[in-house]
Amino acid sequence: MSDFADIFAQVIQKLGGRDAVQALLGVGPSALSNYLRRAELPRDKMAIISTALHAKGWSFEPKKLQLYPLTTQTKRRVLLIITGGIAAYKGLDLARRLMDRGFSVRGVMTESAQNFITPLSLSALTGDKVYTELFSLTDEAEMGHIRLARDTDLVLVAPATANFIAKLSHGLADCLASTLCLATDAPVMVAPAMNPNMWQHPATQDNLTCLDQRGVQIIAPVSGDTACGEIGIGRLAEPVDIADAAAQVVHSKRNCLAGRHVLITSGPTHEPIDPVRYISNRSSGKQGYALAAACAAHGARVTLVSGPVSLPCPANVTLVKVNTARAMHQACLSSLPADIAICAAAVADWYVLNAATQKQKKQNHVQPQIELAKNPDILASLSQATSRPPLVIGFAAETEHLIRHAKDKLAKKKCDWIIANHISDDPSSSVFGSDHNKASLLKGVDIIDWPYQSKQALAERLIVEIDQWIKAHDCSIETK
Ligand code: CTP
């Protein structure tokens, strides 16, 4: 029996036998034999069969000859943005394929997409409201556009027109769909569909390169007849393939650090001069907290050893709050073993040896004398510990000679990687306190320049690198 015959027999059995399938499709016995002989089902019959199987808890992929039960796992959320091209109708099929893979789908349509399909058809499929307006009183009352952008595990733009890709690459926010792509902190995936000339145009290709560099995943269009009658690359990738890629992104996003213990230092330290005064620095702790949140979201067990900051503890993170560098050092050593250590804290280099136990009063003509002693170097200490985490990552915040100083720190502290970021005196462009960061990752002799990006995006990029490192090094540290 051929593969198709085999899978078709299973489909017939799941739907209650040949008679039931003939009745369902409104055909006689010879039609079923013809489908079998041609190893193919007409498109309209395929849709009927898919719907009937769906109702019975099965999903059927005839092209891949797969029949599998609909997942009962916790639903992953995808925000499906359909933009205005002739391939918009395939967005409906894609919504179904995503649901087959256990996604809950929330639909968004641009104004031009509504020239091709209606929000009602998408809404009927997803069983949810479809969002179309940026400034809609009802939408904002029910769910603000920022929450819409954040309440998802993936933003998928399919089909994405050349115009929409240009908007994304330029960061425009002139409609609901483009605003959501800008406001989201979830991964963004784009499946373009357009005329072959538009696809090949340098402007489109430049825009795609720009999106690719920002970490947007592009599902390239395929070659074939396009709606305008031209042959070439431009057809939307098959909905089944897009749905598979989406499932893969969300799955790997969630699980790549599962079973790993990640130790993170964050924030400044306070080195007391007396009970009310201290030596510290301008670190906000935002980068360390963003790293902790991202590692936990990727399945890691996270210990966050934080100096004094007023940020909320990220979900599923064990927070150890400390004040001084010495306390941070102790907390880190007590948290070992760990698979990965990331030292993002701006640790004060010195502590006050003669710190007073009472508040020091000003006295005329007497200059206070502060005696300083060196704090332990936590990053160097973790890098050289007996139970050294296999991957130790530090930060180098520098005002000049960024890469040179970062390389020196990498060698001196004996860590594996250093993230070098530039700090300036100007508070408006300083990494301290900002939500953004411009950094380079130094991995031994390799230097990867990252774009100016949010601290969350930096965390995601670092996790991609860590994931690759884990795959390349067969490090199976048993820390549980
Ligand atoms: N670090 C640390 N413990 C210290 C000092 C620094 O763990 N006592 C870590 C930081 O968390 C960071 C890296 O070392 O990952 C570099 O910190 P940075 O402040 O840039 O450098 P310093 O080591 O303090 O050196 P310098 O002040 O000379 O630049």
Short structural description:
By secondary structure, the chain is an alpha/beta fold. The chain is 39% helix and 22% strand.
| Annotated CATH homologous superfamily of the largest domain | CoaB-like
Q: What is the strand tally?
A: 24
- Hetero compounds: cytidine-5'-triphosphate
Q: Average the pLDDT over all residues and give the rounded result.
A: 88
Strand order of the largest sheet: 15-14-11-16-19-20-22-23
User: How many domains, in number, for the residues?
Assistant: 3
Percent in helix: 25-40%
CATH topology of the largest domain: Rossmann fold
Instruction: Just name the CATH architecture of the largest domain.
Output: 3-Layer(aba) Sandwich
Distance between the termini: 49 Å
- The Cα radius of gyration reads 28 Å
Structural class of the helix and strand makeup?
alpha/beta
Strand content: 15-25%
Poorly predicted ranges (pLDDT <50, ≥5 residues)? Answer: none
Total of DSSP H or I helical runs spanning 4+ residues: 18
Shape: elongated
CATH class wording of the largest domain: Alpha Beta
Major beta sheet summary? 8 strands, mixed
Describe the structure.
The chain is α/β, with parallel strands linked by helices. It has three domains: 3-69, Orthogonal Bundle (434 Repressor (Amino-terminal Domain)), CATH 1.10.260; 77-252, 3-Layer(aba) Sandwich (Rossmann fold), CATH 3.40.50; 261-353 and 368-473, 3-Layer(aba) Sandwich (Rossmann fold), CATH 3.40.50. Helix content is 39%, strand content 22%. The protein is built from 18 helices and 24 strands. An eight-stranded mixed beta sheet has the order 15-14-11-16-19-20-22-23, sandwiched between helices. The chain has a six-stranded parallel beta sheet with strand order 5-4-3-6-7-8, with helices on both faces. It is elongated. It starts with a helix and ends in an 8-residue tail after the last helix. The model has no long low-confidence stretch (mean pLDDT 88).
